[in-house]
Amino acid sequence: MWFVLFKTLEGVPYYGDEPDVPEPLPDPRVEKYDFDFGANLEIWHQFKDDFVNPVNDLCGSLLDFGDCDYFDIEKCAKLKNWLEERLAVNVSDSFRPAYEKLLDYSSRAIVLKTGILVQV
């Protein structure tokens, strides 16, 4: 699983109408965060119930295991609010680092007027 913050959209490649990760990394236009739950399928299923399904419902995203989706400013605002509320309650220690990084990235994307890519 990884998340990419676009620091700028200037000069980044596009896949259809959505920005894509420039290669090779590192690249000054993006910041990437990798996160892995390992081979524990139970944690992955919990993550789907705790994050993937609610975020898809809220943001209209199409996240699923192995899939990537772009969160524009509007989706980032919804994601940011959801993450703030979610982190305020009892969150699994397994998920907290990913949620905190996504909160950071979505907040910064709103300020930068860019977006983030999320790959589960």
Structural summary, described in words:
This protein has one domain. It is α+β, with helices and mostly antiparallel strands and 120 residues long. It starts with a strand and ends with a strand. The protein is globular, with a radius of gyration of 14 Å. It has a four-stranded antiparallel sheet with strand order 4-1-6-5. A two-stranded antiparallel sheet has the order 2-3. The chain has three helices and six strands.
Key terms:
120 residues, alpha+beta, four-stranded antiparallel beta sheet, two-stranded antiparallel ribbon, 6 strands, 19% strand, globular
Oligomer: single chain
How many strand segments? Answer: 6
Helical proportion, percent range = 40-55%
Whole-number mean pLDDT: 96
Kindly name the structural category.
alpha+beta
Main beta-sheet annotation: 4 strands, antiparallel
What global shape is seen? Answer: globular
Strand content: 15-25%
> How many domains, as an integer?
1
Number of helices: 3
Uncertain stretches of 5 or more adjacent residues: none
The run of helices and strands is EEEEHEHHE
Strand order, main sheet: write it out: 4-1-6-5
| N-to-C span | 5 Å
Whole-number radius of gyration? 14 Å
